[in-house]
Amino acid sequence: MAQLSHHGLSLSLCLTLLAASPALADDTAAGATTSVRLDGQGRILASRVTTAEAQDNLETRLSLAVAAGSATPGATSTRGELKRWDDLNVAAAARWTGRPLQLSLEAASGLSQPAEGGYRTDTSARAMAAVEPNPTISFDLTGEVAHSDVAFGQSGAAQVSRVSDAVAAGVQWKPLPGVALKASQRLEDADLVWRGRGASQAVAAVDLPAVELAARPWNGADLNIAYGRIASNFDADRFAAIAASGLADPTLLGRAYRPDQAWRLAVTAVHQIGAAKLKLGLSDSQLITSQEMGAAAPTLVAGGRRTDMSLGFEWPFQLADRAATLAGDWTQRASSLRDPLTGALRPLSGEAAYDGRLDLALASLDRRWSWGLGAHLTGPSSDFSASRVRQVGALSSLSSFVEMRADNTALRLQVDNLLNDAPSVLDMNFLRDRSSGQILSQDHSALDSSALRLTVTLSRRI
Question: What is the reported pTM?
């Protein structure tokens, strides 16, 4: 991989090629929107919504992304800490839309290499089929497989592998205009294997039922209510970080490492006032089990609660001879569980108390040029291990972009971390473990988060 970083400056180059059948030539006029992107785990996320009369069509997309520099957090980084990673990601997606059947196939593969040695690979595939026998009812079936490998050190002797597969089925019923009810069931199993200082294996299988109500109570308003079981934090990165840190006995780690699970009720309301949109989100999660560090290994803590409240807006307007959009959102979190070592109530480990963003984008009236600024803020958090509490302060950053469009081609230049503070870190080290209540030392430091990240994206639709 070519070295693209120098003195804290990182460069990313992303090339996206799109090929579509003639039926997609007038996608905008047909009322269809499509998005394809890679997430942080190297998996591809794709979606397509068609609002006009459906017609048979085929869409294919291929993306290649290359990145290097010191602004990408490594798999075992503390939140806010910046490490240099070189990345290569390839993704492909194909989707056929017709009546009454829709089919999609997605695949992705990624390779990352940190400066301190080792590597990470991610490969995933996803297939989906949906059928709509009549306008009031539809069925969908999804299958997924994923494989990740994370190796540490120059020799890569320590390694974590994760293999997972999942299947999900859903049915949607529209009893009235503007009202939809959906029920779904997802089954997922995953296998994590650690090889290094000792060896361990963690296996988990979860079933995740859910029900959802979507309604439009009046024109310009959308309401969504969802209730179901969710699972999280059963990933290779977290497993590798704990195993490599030596905080847990590897043999005990495999037997104790399990995903967090909760029953969550989420309500989202969106209201349009003229051209502006307002969004309100509320969620309440009753924790079934949460994984927290015990004396020698992660411990499943039963019970607890987590609540989220979010506010967002999007306001397009005219600024002189420019089309402008101001958008922002704010999320406030609160959680509590009983600490497995001290028995006291405390927040979930590593959870930020809040985060928010504010973005301003300007575009020429013909949309050929656009540019903007974005401000981001992440609140403080506390990480609880067996004998240490690490408190990380709030992190704020500023980013900017400029984009030029000509016919079917777009060139985008984005710079992240233009202004980026160094969040404070306080490490409180305890005698034996935190249950002793005796603090041996307090270490103050700051995380280095000053490196720029430069991203160049070239995309063309064929």
Answer: 0.77
22 φ, ψ to 5°?
A: -55, -25
* Other CB atoms within 10 Å distance of the CB of residue 220: 12
What CA–CA distance (Å, rounded) separates 223 from 216? 6
CA–CA gap between residue 168 and residue 141 (Å, rounded): 6
Q: Provide the terminal-to-terminal Cα distance of the chain, rounded to the nearest Å.
A: 28
Q: What is the DSSP string of 178-209?
A: TEEEEEEEEEEEEEEEEEESEEEEEEEEEEEE
For tokens 């067996």, the residue is 386
| In a domain? residue 237 | no
The Cβ of residue 51 has, within 10 Å, a number of other Cβ atoms equal to 9
Note whether residue 150 is domain-resident: no
- pLDDT tens profile 189-202: 988 887 776 677 88
Please indicate, yes or no, if residue 35 is contained in any of the structural domains: yes
Phi, psi (rounded to 5 degrees) for 266: -125, 135
Q: Which residues pair with 395 in a beta bridge?
A: 378
Q: Is the peptide bond preceding residue 100 cis, with omega within 30 degrees of 0?
A: yes
Q: Judging by DSSP bridges, how do beta strands 452-461 and 9-20 pair with one another?
A: parallel
Residue 77 located in a structural domain: yes
The count of C-alpha atoms lying within 13 angstroms of the C-alpha of 414, restricted to the half-sphere facing its C-beta, is 16
- Does residue 272 contact residue 219 with C-beta atoms inside 8 Å? no
User: In angstroms, rounded to a whole number, what is the distance separating the alpha carbons of residues 414 and 14?
Assistant: 11
Rounded Cα distance between 48 and 32, Å, is: 7
Query: What are the angstrom distances between the C-alpha of 391 and each of 67, 249, 299, 336, 351?
Result: 30, 24, 21, 17, 11
Give pLDDT tens digits for 403-435. 888 877 778 888 877 877 778 899 999 988 888
User: Domain count of the chain?
Assistant: 1
User: In this structure, what token pair is assigned to residue 36?
Assistant: 């394809």
Q: How far is CA 196 from CA 158, 245, 251, 336, in A?
A: 4, 12, 11, 34
Residue 447 CA to residue 452 CA, distance in Å, equals 15
User: In whole angstroms, how far apart are CA 275 and each of 51, 318, 388?
Assistant: 19, 11, 50
Residue span of the structural domain in which 80 resides: 1-134
